[in-house]
């Protein structure tokens, strides 16, 4: 007969209770609700009422007999499960000591505090973001028996280990025998008697002796455990709440570090460190000291754990630039790892961005959330569109009650065992990583987890666990798998088959983000051109960028936060745009003030794109046509000249082909016909002599879908969304609103339910591009709005613009992988082309698309109801454009067209005043010209440090070849740099370049990003 595991676990619990040798209950406390008016109250004390901060205090005199013992304090703040951010912070003798929440209720008093005997206790309790009331229960001070605690932990952990081991494993029986023997020794006839205490000691000896005598087979996997807390800086709480959570969490970590010298902790996100620096400078210094010691790991690379679908390539670069600069400055180290446990898909440009930032490793758990397909590897080489490769590893720790991996792991035998069981790459590696600790809203590891972790290495068969750092883990992993020929690789994006609604939710944030990205491009570019190296300007830009980066956090930009999160981000964007506009204006005026002006009054038009272009400009409240502005340069034009261009008589403009009416819009290249309900009946390409739309189908169909995902409302669009479909057809108004022979606009107004959609369809001279300039007053909930274009094009794949490049995705449903990608993310454009002809769909702030079969759709509005019940209610402004073309998207210039849709020409009224007084610039000028049709000059910015201008190019045609950059100003020096603006080794052949007096020549490979620091004369 053997004691059952159930009985043994019961004994462990019983011992835990018995280990309390004495306790004191504090039946009263002084309390106040934030007004400083302390009053004595009996516990439990009711507290709460929405965003209030409560204070409780009491003085405790420890009995003399306790002052050498193990003394703990227990607090119960009645913290609910519903993540309302209700939590507290304990101060002992005026010192910030421990974070109190649902999982952290017991604080082990440090020895010096116990010896001192008098404890001034104060608890600061935040009552959460709801109006709910809670109870501050009577705190307890307990004297514990360490040996009983120790035995209890052993029994619990060993019993759990036995449960993990299979019945055919001899270790299962050996461990069970050991537990049985120990428990039989335990004399519970007279608890706390002398014979009981000596039986505890003898049981412990049985276990310790037995474990060391067990044979080691030498084949157990190894596992590095690192403490961690996922702190969403905004989600079901606001940034202010997350700042408080961070202080609480890190205080707890410090206490655990004092208590357990082997305990290590990992924390990403410089943004959080910057908050701590401000909110708790003493805590920040403690963190710096622990980091110095190597026990607190500062890693992760990015400024925040950013969304990776929506931010532009340049934004992602800045995440690393600002993130890693901060870590260098405050912690004196660089980062080697991208830590992205909880982000909703990873774009195919990331491996190259990582490589060029010196990041070698990538960690996530999120791909295990795939709805349909099991991602085949947990350790692999992740290869980007350009061929760059980083080592990727998924932490495979089990999420309790869900069949997915987690970054909020437990540390106990079951968790480490399942981490190994789950791990899909056993054939190539048996060295694993676990990040343990409570998270999403902070909290972090508990003492119990660390206690378990301490024992794990002694348990046979289970992964041999030790505390360590994630970087140490990755370096060892790399050493083990680097030379293996069977290390699998995965090329392209890591698409998450889940959370596809995050490309669209909270459209306002997506729009602000896009606007900010372009505004900062312009501001930096004209700032660099105007020779800004003023430290203050650079600091302003850095401040603005950090706000942009913060708002790209993976529950802000994806739209998955509570309403207050977006109220905060509105304020941030106001500031972001103000800074950007201020720097831009200063840059433009600095350039304009140097242009030799005529007596003839006029305007100066700036073009920040590296090719000559014409376009519409808004100036003095008027929209005017400018026929050509030099690449990355400007042109001055007199009012007289402008008037002449803008007054082209309709009939004369394009040989009579021009016609704008509510039934038909036509220019020399294209003719579109409208149905009575406003949809497109026909889009005829006159140049190609063919219809663009599929036979019998209408275009620009505004489609509505019932959008009630099973769960995660703001995050998800479910597979079955097309089943309930309606069309917007109730046209209540149509009129020609503009026609000057160069541009014509017909405005359609539809209503649907309580919403109104007003759309200007715009046709331009000399262009096949049709713009749909749209304003929506949206009053629906859980309804998805898309615009559909069924086109007469046959192709098995479509092309999607992504960060620093593009990729192809299937239009078929042949495989489960194709099928699972029923909603996809793109940056500025998507394209569906067959041999010789195709159609591109461009946008100025939208991301969600689906192209299956021959229908191209762009997702416009989502409007989920959780966590924001009124998400996307109200005004929307956006533009999408249909661009039918001959040839491929590349030869037809889709990419350039998309930049032009996004980045308008800038015009300013010129001050007249002769050519004297520093007016040394000509009337028309091109600063830089790029020869290389497939290469984009993405960024021109002042260098972060020192003089010089940073020029960043990226290849987008999947093509290699030479690039020549011509500069009007003499080039004094050139240096190839990485994305962090550090010089790259000149030895690498790929980094070679040739500098001329006014030119820079280099080569690119497909999708390569190249950055140079250039000093101009
Ligand atoms: Zn998260």
From TrEMBL:
Give yes or no: UniProt keyword Metal-binding: yes
| Leader sequence segment | none
- Which keywords are on file for this protein? Glycosidase, Hydrolase, Metal-binding
Q: Which residues form the Glycoside hydrolase family 38 central domain?
A: 497-573
Q: Which domain of life is it from?
A: Bacteria
Q: Which InterPro entries match?
A: Gal_mutarotase_sf_dom (IPR011013), GH38_C (IPR041147), Glyco_hydro/deAcase_b/a-brl (IPR011330), Glyco_hydro_38_C (IPR011682), Glyco_hydro_38_cen (IPR015341), Glyco_hydro_38_cen_sf (IPR037094), Glyco_hydro_38_N (IPR000602), Glyco_hydro_38_N_sf (IPR027291)
Alphabetical GO biological process terms: mannose metabolic process; oligosaccharide catabolic process
GO MF: alpha-mannosidase activity; carbohydrate binding; metal ion binding
Q: Which family does it belong to?
A: Belongs to the glycosyl hydrolase 38 family.
Q: What is this protein called?
A: Alpha-mannosidase
Q: Which organism is it from?
A: Paenibacillus cremeus
């Amino acid at each position: 007969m053997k004691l059952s595991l159930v009985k043994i676990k019961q004994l462990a619990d019983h011992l835990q209770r018995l280990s309390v040798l004495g306790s004191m209950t504090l039946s009263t406390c002084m309390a106040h609700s934030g007004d400083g008016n302390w009053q004595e109250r009996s516990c439990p004390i009711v507290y709460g009422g929405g965003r209030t901060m409560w204070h409780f205090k009491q003085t405790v005199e420890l009995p003399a007999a306790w002052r050498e013992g193990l003394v703990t304090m227990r607090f119960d703040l009645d913290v609910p499960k519903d993540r309302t951010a209700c939590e507290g912070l304990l101060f002992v003798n005026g010192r910030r000591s421990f974070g109190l929440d649902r999982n952290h209720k017991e604080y082990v008093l440090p020895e010096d505090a116990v010896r001192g005997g008098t404890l001034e206790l104060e608890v600061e309790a935040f009552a959460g973001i709801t109006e709910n009331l809670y109870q501050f229960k009577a705190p307890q001070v307990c004297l514990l028996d360490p040996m009983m605690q120790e035995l209890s932990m052993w029994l619990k952990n060993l019993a759990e280990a036995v449960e993990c081991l299979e019945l055919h494993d001899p270790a299962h029986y050996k461990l069970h025998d050991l537990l049985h023997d120990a428990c039989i020794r335990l004399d519970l006839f007279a608890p706390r008697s002398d014979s009981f205490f000596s039986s505890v000691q003898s049981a412990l000896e049985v276990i310790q002796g037995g474990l060391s005598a067990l044979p080691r087979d030498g084949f157990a996997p190894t596992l590095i455990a690192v403490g961690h807390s996922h702190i969403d800086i905004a989600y079901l709480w606001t940034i202010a709440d997350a700042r408080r959570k961070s202080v609480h969490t890190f205080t707890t970590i410090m206490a655990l570090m004092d208590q357990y010298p082997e305990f290590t902790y990992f924390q990403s996100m410089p943004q959080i460190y910057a908050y701590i620096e401000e909110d708790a400078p003493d805590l920040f210094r403690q963190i710096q000291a622990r980091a110095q010691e190597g026990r607190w790991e500062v890693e992760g690379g990015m400024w925040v754990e950013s969304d990776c679908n929506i931010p532009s390539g340049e934004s992602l670069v800045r995440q690393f630039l600002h993130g890693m600069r901060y870590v260098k400055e405050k912690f004196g180290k660089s980062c080697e790892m991208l830590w992205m446990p909880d982000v909703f898909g990873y774009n195919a440009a990331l491996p190259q961005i990582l490589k060029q930032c010196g990041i070698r490793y990538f960690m996530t758990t999120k791909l295990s959330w795939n709805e349909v397909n099991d991602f085949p590897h947990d350790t692999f080489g992740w290869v980007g569109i350009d061929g760059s490769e980083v080592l990727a590893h998924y932490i495979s720790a089990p999420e309790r009650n869900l069949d997915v991996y987690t970054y909020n792991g437990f540390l106990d035998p079951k968790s480490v065992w399942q981490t190994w069981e789950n791990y899909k790459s056993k054939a190539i590696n048996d060295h694993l990583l676990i990040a343990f600790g409570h998270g999403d809203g902070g909290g972090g590891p508990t003492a119990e987890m660390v206690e378990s972790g301490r024992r794990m290495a002694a348990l046979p068969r289970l992964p041999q666990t030790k505390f360590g750092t994630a970087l140490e883990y990755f370096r060892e992993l790399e050493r083990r798998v680097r030379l293996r020929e069977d290390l699998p690789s995965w090329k392209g994006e890591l698409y998450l088959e889940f959370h596809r609604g995050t490309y669209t939710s909270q459209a306002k944030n997506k729009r602000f983000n896009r606007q900010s990205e372009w505004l900062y491009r312009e501001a930096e570019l004209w700032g660099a051109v105007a020779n800004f190296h003023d430290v203050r300007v650079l600091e302003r830009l850095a401040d603005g960028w950090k706000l942009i980066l913060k708002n790209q956090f993976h529950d802000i930009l994806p739209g998955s936060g509570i309403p207050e999160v977006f109220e905060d981000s509105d304020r941030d964007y106001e500031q972001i745009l103000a800074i950007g506009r201020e720097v831009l204006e200063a840059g433009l005026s600095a350039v304009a003030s140097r242009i030799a002006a005529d007596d003839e009054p006029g305007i100066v038009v700036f073009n920040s794109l590296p090719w000559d272009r014409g376009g519409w400009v808004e100036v003095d409240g008027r929209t005017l046509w400018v026929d050509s502005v030099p690449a990355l340069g400007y042109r001055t034009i007199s009012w007289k000249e402008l008037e002449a261009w803008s007054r082209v008589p309709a009939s004369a403009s394009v040989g009579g082909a021009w016609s704008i009416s509510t039934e038909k819009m036509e220019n020399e290249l294209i003719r579109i016909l409208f149905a009575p309900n406003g949809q497109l009946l026909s889009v005829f390409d006159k140049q190609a002599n063919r219809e663009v739309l599929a036979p019998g189908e209408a275009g620009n169909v505004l489609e509505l879908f019932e959008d009630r995902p099973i769960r995660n409302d703001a995050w998800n669009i479910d597979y079955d969304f097309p089943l309930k479909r309606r069309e917007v057809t109730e046209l209540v108004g149509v009129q020609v609103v503009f026609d000057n022979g160069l541009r014509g606009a017909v405005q359609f107004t539809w209503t649907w339910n309580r919403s109104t959609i007003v759309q200007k369809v715009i046709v331009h001279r000399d262009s096949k591009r049709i713009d749909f300039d749209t304003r929506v007053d949206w009053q629906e909930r859980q309804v998805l709005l898309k615009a559909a274009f069924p086109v007469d094009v046959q192709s098995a794949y479509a092309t999607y613009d992504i960060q620093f490049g593009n990729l192809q995705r299937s239009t078929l449903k042949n495989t489960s992988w194709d099928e699972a990608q029923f909603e996809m993310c793109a940056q500025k454009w998507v394209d569906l082309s067959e041999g010789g002809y195709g159609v591109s769909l461009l946008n100025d702030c939208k991301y969600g698309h689906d192209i299956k079969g021959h229908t191209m759709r762009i997702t416009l509005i989502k409007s989920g109801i959780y966590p924001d019940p009124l998400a996307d209610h109200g005004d929307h402004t956006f533009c999408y454009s249909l661009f039918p073309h001959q040839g491929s998207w590349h030869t037809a210039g889709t990419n350039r067209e998309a930049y032009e849709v996004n980045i308008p020409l800038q015009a300013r009224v010129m001050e007249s005043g002769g050519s004297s007084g520093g007016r040394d610039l000509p009337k028309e000028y091109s600063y830089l010209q790029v020869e290389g049709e497939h290469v984009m000059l993405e960024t021109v910015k002042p260098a972060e440090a020192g003089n010089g201008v940073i020029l960043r190019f990226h290849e987008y045609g999947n093509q290699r070849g030479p690039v020549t950059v011509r500069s009007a100003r003499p080039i004094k020096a050139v240096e190839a740099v990485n994305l962090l603006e550090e010089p790259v080794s000149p030895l690498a052949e790929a980094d070679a370049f040739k500098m001329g007096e006014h030119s820079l020549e280099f080569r690119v490979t497909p999708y390569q990003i190249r950055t140079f620091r250039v000093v101009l004369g």
